[in-house]
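Exercise 7. Given the encoded structure of a 170-residue chain, write a plausible sequence.
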């Protein structure tokens, strides 16, 4: 089943409701610690730093609507996956976004888009109801995507990967 722009827009709206600091780079601003250090070195006050960060965050959050096509791709990758009981700590949103790109390349023509931003993957997953774990000062998010589903998708993207072997019982 194909994910529509309307569905992806709803996923994005829900994700922004649950994670208001979602940007194309992920959960929060890119290199926030580095920027703060530069601000302190430039003798900026805490209020000036906070004002700059709020303005940047507002601009980048507003930019998320320009990534709706990427949300569609991520949602198509996620659509057959049922969330697991626990958050999978083996992967982050950044790794998943690369999996989506490989999967899209394997199933699409050379003219199709393949890029998916970290924020677009996060938006699709949150919007589709996956549980997540986000840490302060980390752009990446972890989700309750079962490892078996991850391996299945990776095999779809790379048919040369062998399916998981089942143990033999004597």
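Solution.
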């Amino acid at each position: 089943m194909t994910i529509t722009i309307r569905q992806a827009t709803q996923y994005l709206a829900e994700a922004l409701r649950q994670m208001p600091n979602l940007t194309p780079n992920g959960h929060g601003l890119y290199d926030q610690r580095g920027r703060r250090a530069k601000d302190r070195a430039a003798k900026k006050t805490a209020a000036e730093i906070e004002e700059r960060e709020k303005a940047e965050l507002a601009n980048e959050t507003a930019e998320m609507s320009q990534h709706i096509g990427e949300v569609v791709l991520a949602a198509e990758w996620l659509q057959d996956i049922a969330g697991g009981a626990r958050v999978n700590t083996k992967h982050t949103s950044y790794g998943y976004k690369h999996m989506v790109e490989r999967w899209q390349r394997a199933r699409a023509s050379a003219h199709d888009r393949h890029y998916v931003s970290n924020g677009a993957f996060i938006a699709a997953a949150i919007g589709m109801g996956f549980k997540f774990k986000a840490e302060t000062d980390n752009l990446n998010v972890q989700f309750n995507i079962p490892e078996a589903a991850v391996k299945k998708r990776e095999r779809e993207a790379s048919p040369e990967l062998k399916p998981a072997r089942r143990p033999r019982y004597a």
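Remark. The longest helix spans residues 46-63. Students should compare their own answers with the one above.
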